[in-house]
Amino acid sequence: MLKKQVLEKAFKFLQEIEGTKTYETKKVADKVMAEDNNGIGVSTIYTLDEGYETALLDKDGVYPVERYKTKKFALIGHKKWTMWAKDRKNKTVVKLGGFGGIVRNEEIKLKRLPFNIIK
Questions:
Q1: Is the pTM of the predicted complex or chain greater than 0.90?
Q2: Which of 28, 31, 33, 30 is nearest to 112 (CA)?
Q3: Are 49 and 98 in contact (CB under 8 A)?
Q4: How buried is 23 (Cβ within 10 angstroms: 0-12 exposed, 13-18 middle, 19+ buried)?
Q5: Residue 41: how many other CB atoms lie within 10 Å
């Protein structure tokens, strides 16, 4: 139980630190808006807790899908996920967990923003 409490405090501390930074200071690549990418947004940033990561944004939430060791690989991954998300097929992704396995990976079916809302 003590381990969980320590991790919760550490996570809260990281959230507070992260909260002082704007998206613009954390981003690695320009965010791809859902309306420009067939209803799925793509964001790649640097986070204090997990490092470089790409997340997909749909109607219901934000899902980290890939993490990288370097900015160079993050930029490559951002382009890859932008192209992947643009495909019109229904998509299922693995939302990455974190904190050494405390938060588990979870399979998510993406829900694209409807075009009548986007346009």
A1: no
A2: 33
A3: yes
A4: exposed
A5: 19
